[in-house]
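re: ur question from yesterday

yeah so i grabbed the chain u mentioned. its 267 aa long if i counted rite. heres the sequnce exactly as i have it in my notes:
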Amino acid sequence: MLRKLTAAVASAGLLFGLAACGGSADDDDTLTIGATSVPHAEILTYVKDNLAAKAGLKIEVKEFSEYEQLNPALASKQLDANYFQHKPYLEESNQKTGEHLVFVAGVHLEPLGVYSKKVKSLQELRQGATVSLPSDPTNEGRALKLLADNGLITLKPGAGQTATEKDVAGNPKGIRFRPTDAASLPRQLGDVDASVINGNYALEARLNPAKDALVSEKAAGNPYVNGIVTRPEDKDDPKIKKLVALLTGPEVRKFIQDKYQGSVLPS
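ran it thru and got these structure tokens back, copy pasting raw so excuse formatting
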């Protein structure tokens, strides 16, 4: 009897924990969306406060400080959708975890930029300079491509979106790369000669990609647009479709343009 009672209490506790985390789309009419704070949660909060009610949509925004937690939370049904990632990151995540989360629609681009407290151009970087960059596979490859596009290094033919230091074919300045957790890059900017920083973390550190970056990504043809991701069985859910329509509509486009002044670009 004691074992049965303990099992029942444990089961109730698990159910309570899932409910406290927000549940899934089947629990009620509220769409629970996980996001990193800047700009994703800010954009979602604008939609929640200004557009959702008129569209017949109820939204709960859950902020996460570490984006690595968001896909597991979605897969385990603590969220109905998340908003923080681009397709290459999602593909890498799905391959690693065996999940089948789906990218529903792109919303905005956060241009990856190179920042420095020591030089004012890439050409001023000294021989043997240290450049930090995001350590996760897709963003490391993205950072290396940005450096290659601006003439600092060259990459081997065929180096793809998950390029690493091993794919660097030419490095005339002998740049030393320091892969670092993406969220830590702004805090460590003073310890390196330059750093390639994701747009959302640059904004959180009050760095403006449009003004402060030595170089930054261009929007045209960019595969790294951030968007809404959900589970495959929910991709056609009417609430998800309403959310996507709002996020890709003219009001949100204007909000992004006015608030971020080129630091975030509507897709």
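noticed a couple things. The helical segments are 2-20, 37-50, 70-75, 87-97, 137-149, 199-204, 238-247, 250-260. also Confidence is low (pLDDT under 50) at residues 1-27.
anyway ttyl
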